[in-house]
Request: fold
Amino acid sequence: MPITTTRRQLLAGSAAALALPAFARAQGAIKPRLTAISQWSAGSDGAAITALGKKFEEKGGVWQHSPVPGFTTEMMNKLRAQIMAGDPPACSQLKGPEIAAWSKIAPTVDLDAVVAAAGYEKVIAPDLAKLHKPGGKWIALPLQIYSTNMLFLSKRAMDKAKADKIPVTWAEFNDLAEKMKAGGVPYPIANGGTRPDDGQKFEAALAGISPTAYRAALMNLDKKALEGPEIKAAFVQVRKIADWMDPNVGAQHFSTNLKRFVDGDMGMMIMGGWAQGVLRNAGFKFEDFIIAPGPSDNGKPVFLLNADAFIFWQRKEPDLQAGQTLMAQLVMDPAIQTMYSQITGSIPVRTDVDLSGEGWSDGQRRTAAALKDAIASNQAVLSLAHNMAQENGMTAAMIDVITEYVKNKTIKPEQAAVRLAEAVESSR
Amino acid sequence: MTIAVSTTPGRPAASDWVRRLPEYLTIWVPLLLSATHLIAFTLWTIWISFTPSTLVPVSGWVGLRNYSAVAASRNWQIALDNLLLFGSAFVLLSLATGLILAILLDQRIRGENLLRSIFLYPLAVSFVVTGTVWSWLLNPGLGIQKLVRDLGWTTFRFDWLIDRDMAIWTIVIAAIWQSSGFAMALFLAGLRSVDADLIKAAQIDGAGPIRMYRRVILPTLWPITITVIVIQLQFAISTFDLVRALTNGGPGIATQLPALVVYDLMFQRSLLGRGAAAAVLMLLILLAVLLPYAAWRYVQRRRAIHA
Reply:
């Protein structure tokens, strides 16, 4: 008997000794750990998230990022598989209304306390904030912002047109395109032929004509606004743009034609702010092009928001929970947002970051200023073409109509407006 | 599955069973696995197509709502029209090309092996590669049109890739390039297996080469023709990677095909229920081709047994 007791005591003792370190960690010395998935694997996107991971490690964390290269939807397929297997990452890339949709299929982390502590809500655009707190609580955090309706002007094409004024309204834009055409620029509009590319032309047109109509029709899906005159006017403007584009681009990516744009064979490009990074990476100089906010008929900048974000999924492990808090703090940190945007060419989500210093380009400064103005005049709206205004299914149904209209010149603007309204009705 | 039937009457000995265990294992285990896999997932997809699933599969019953939504969508209607056009044009033209190539190769020419490899080679190339290469060749600003114009014929036009009415034909061209070699190989084998006595008899009767092909050789090829048609048709119905790389359904949505719609609904739009419904509709189209073929094979076999 005495022997057994001793053995039992021994066992209990060693079990306690083994459990002790874990217990101690749980008491506060936990090493934060973060499992994350995103599509950012290469180029400036990959470099930026790697830099973010370094910062995370500097704060004593363990950074476990698994990139899923390719389209966002491929990252989503991995996320879906992990959620269905009951093993979601602590944090994943996700943006726009998809945050609300996905938060219904798995529990997310309530970030209200950490967001309130950072005073974050006061410094970001209200429409953007709403997307990241679908049930009234913060569950995701925006990381960086791009505008999808920046106007890029080719310096050489401007010279050919003997123009030096940046167009502000659509009328001025159309005048400049005509001048370029007359001045020997074969294609006044540079473009690609992808679906988001076509979608961007339409959203830029509508938002420039009336941000109010844009908000009502494309963001709130108001039936009356969808049948309103602004939609037709936007389609009329899109047809003008389409007539100035090179039809030969087929389904190419916009970046294929950047050289022709810089050379002055193509004049203007309506593209997201990321094109600046692409132009710079392709070896072109800032003197080759001008970046300005997209045309707006009321003269005040309209900002079509596209924001990348992280959503946080509930995990039981204390080290992952600590990692989520640390990650949230980092993502909201102005210094981190500065570092991130300077690598990718975006602008910070926070409107209180000073962009006058070194490391920022004129284009980024102008974009940030446009965002500030647009928020002040309530003209910051969410991009349709880049899945910020609606969930993927609705977006795709609308882009179907738009892309067909851009490519098929026999469809009349009125017809396109009717089809758009029908597409919305059938996808509700 | 015509597994060798034991020739000895009565029950086979136990040792016989043991001896043939490896045989049973290699045949039945993989067969059961793949059949379960195939049938289970088909049934599962059919079930999903009746549920309101969007981002993830959920249970529930919506009846035929997913089907009516898919059938009413413009994408699906365009995809069906395209499938009809693409399917018939592709099958007929690849059949014709394959047959002509086979007949030409059958003339006991020199370098036949080399030529045969060249014609068959595209089959070894992935459809994504075929699609990408043809998307460059057919691009008016980069490919054939530019080449001919640079050679001096400045008004030459070949811009089907960006013409929404003609774009579907670019897929036909690329698909024929890829798979007419396959039809050729089958036809060539058929031509070679025609009874030499038959040909000799025809020659003695004074038949010229054209008459010989029309009246003697080609009629013996028709079972092969049907096989080729069925194989090419099921390829046409499930075409995905080729069109994705070549036109990605564009210009606009002019070259949509059913498989693209399925992928788009399931993975781009996160509408699993509707995507599953579209997939089931595709399966029905496939069955419409395969069932008559199976019935025909059955009748053929019955006839062969009776003869």
